[in-house]
Structures are given as structure tokens and as C-alpha cells.
């Protein structure tokens, strides 16, 4: 059909062109004349970078592994050593699923590089049990049903073990009534505050707190 030429109004073509220009302006904030075609980004290089030999002490065993020095401790466990118990959740240190113990202190293994931990004593969830005897925190989590999907559980348990060590040493928290007290009373408020860096998306928090409270006298 031929385009209507109405001298008293716009043609169909000008209406369509005007609509396209308006849509572009709303989407980008720039008029049509200002739009420039950006060159396609160059393909990322697939050439592997330099590696280095790293010696790690994990769960009372010595490991030697060849790594890109930018490899996180978490990726070293999962991708190079077959230790898949520590989970990758947010990969930004915000969920606690990757929590492990380094020299008895809990850390997020997604936020630290493996090369930084030569000479350290590293404990993952796989190293907590004494052969067939579960760690008291592990046993309490089972007895109290302190998990649902289980994805966060390795980090929750490692964090709880580290937290109980901190409490025994008298570390206060924001929930502590007396920061200079010689000992810490691990009531529910203290446990919630001290475990706040570990997220359970299934919301099994009441059972987690109960499990930690039970284990506090045994761990």
C-alpha cells in the first residue's frame, strides 16, 4: 500500500521514525545522533598464567599443589584437592558457606589466597571428626536437626567451632552485657550475634542455636 501523503499531518514513516528515536532516547538517555557503535571487545585470552608451587597443611595432611597465585583457598580445596565440603555460596564473604579454620580462627576461604597460607594449620569440615567419632558440634547439629538443604552446614559448623573457641578465651561480642567479663555466657542472644556472619537460607536458625548451645559444654 502506498504511503499516505497528508499535507496537513505527518506521514506514517515520520511517525514510526519518531517513535524509534523516542524509544532510543528513553532507553539510553542519548539522542540518535549521539549513538556510536562501540567496537566488539577482544576475546579473553585462554593462555594460562604463571603458576607457583604451594605447600599447604590441611586437616593434618601436607599437600603440594601447582597454582595460579591468584587462586583462592576455597577454589584450591574444591578444584585442586578434591575437598568439596567447603561450599561456594556468594563468593564475596557475605554468606559464610565457605568458613574454615586457620590456626584455630574462622575465616571465609573465598576471600583469601592459597599462597598466603603456607605454614598455617588449616581445618576444613572434612577434618573436624576424629576418624569415626564426630566432633561434638557435628553431632549436635545432627541431634538437633540443625540443617535443611545442608548447603550452609559445613560453614555453620566450622564457624561454630571457631566461635566456641573465641567464647572460651573470653572474646566479647556486641551482645555481651559486660565486655570485660572473665567469661562469656553463651545464651541465645550471644550465639545469634556471634554466628551472624553465617546465613541459612532455609532459616533453620532455632535448631542451629540449640545445637550450638548443646555443644558448648562438650566442644
TrEMBL record:
<protein>
    <submittedName>
        <fullName>2Fe-2S iron-sulfur cluster-binding protein</fullName>
    </submittedName>
</protein>
<keyword id="KW-0479">Metal-binding</keyword>
<dbReference type="InterPro" id="IPR001041">
    <property type="entry name" value="2Fe-2S_ferredoxin-type"/>
</dbReference>
<dbReference type="InterPro" id="IPR006058">
    <property type="entry name" value="2Fe2S_fd_BS"/>
</dbReference>
<keyword id="KW-0408">Iron</keyword>
<feature type="domain" description="2Fe-2S ferredoxin-type">
    <location>
        <begin position="52"/>
        <end position="128"/>
    </location>
</feature>
<dbReference type="InterPro" id="IPR052914">
    <property type="entry name" value="Aldehyde_Oxdr_Iron-Sulfur"/>
</dbReference>
<dbReference type="InterPro" id="IPR036884">
    <property type="entry name" value="2Fe-2S-bd_dom_sf"/>
</dbReference>
<dbReference type="InterPro" id="IPR002888">
    <property type="entry name" value="2Fe-2S-bd"/>
</dbReference>
<dbReference type="InterPro" id="IPR012675">
    <property type="entry name" value="Beta-grasp_dom_sf"/>
</dbReference>
<keyword id="KW-0560">Oxidoreductase</keyword>
<dbReference type="Pfam" id="PF01799">
    <property type="entry name" value="Fer2_2"/>
</dbReference>
<dbReference type="Pfam" id="PF00111">
    <property type="entry name" value="Fer2"/>
</dbReference>
<dbReference type="InterPro" id="IPR036010">
    <property type="entry name" value="2Fe-2S_ferredoxin-like_sf"/>
</dbReference>
<dbReference type="InterPro" id="IPR006311">
    <property type="entry name" value="TAT_signal"/>
</dbReference>
Amino acid at each position: 500500500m502506498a504511503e499516505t501523503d497528508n499535507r496537513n499531518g505527518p506521514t506514517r514513516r515520520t511517525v514510526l521514525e519518531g517513535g524509534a528515536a523516542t524509544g532510543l532516547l528513553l532507553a539510553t538517555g542519548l539522542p540518535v545522533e549521539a549513538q556510536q557503535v562501540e567496537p566488539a571487545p577482544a576475546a579473553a585470552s585462554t593462555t594460562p598464567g604463571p603458576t607457583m608451587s604451594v605447600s599447604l597443611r590441611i586437616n593434618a595432611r601436607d599437600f603440594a599443589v601447582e597454582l595460579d597465585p591468584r587462586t583462592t583457598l576455597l577454589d584450591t580445596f574444591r578444584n585442586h584437592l578434591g575437598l568439596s565440603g567447603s561450599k561456594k555460596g556468594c563468593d564475596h564473604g557475605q554468606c559464610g558457606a565457605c568458613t574454615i579454620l586457620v590456626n584455630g580462627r574462622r575465616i571465609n576461604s573465598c576471600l583469601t589466597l592459597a599462597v598466603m597460607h603456607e605454614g598455617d594449620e588449616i581445618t576444613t569440615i572434612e577434618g573436624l571428626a576424629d576418624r569415626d567419632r564426630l566432633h561434638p558440634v557435628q553431632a549436635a547439629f545432627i541431634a538437633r536437626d540443625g540443617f535443611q538443604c545442608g548447603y550452609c552446614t559445613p560453614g555453620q559448623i566450622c564457624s561454630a567451632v571457631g566461635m566456641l573457641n573465641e567464647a572460651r578465651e573470653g572474646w566479647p561480642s556486641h551482645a555481651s552485657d559486660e565486655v570485660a567479663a572473665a567469661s562469656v555466657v553463651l545464651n541465645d542472644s550471644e550465639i545469634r550475634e556471634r554466628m551472624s556472619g553465617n546465613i541459612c537460607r532455609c532459616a533453620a536458625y532455632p535448631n542451629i542455636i540449640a545445637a550450638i548451645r548443646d555443644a558448648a559444654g562438650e566442644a
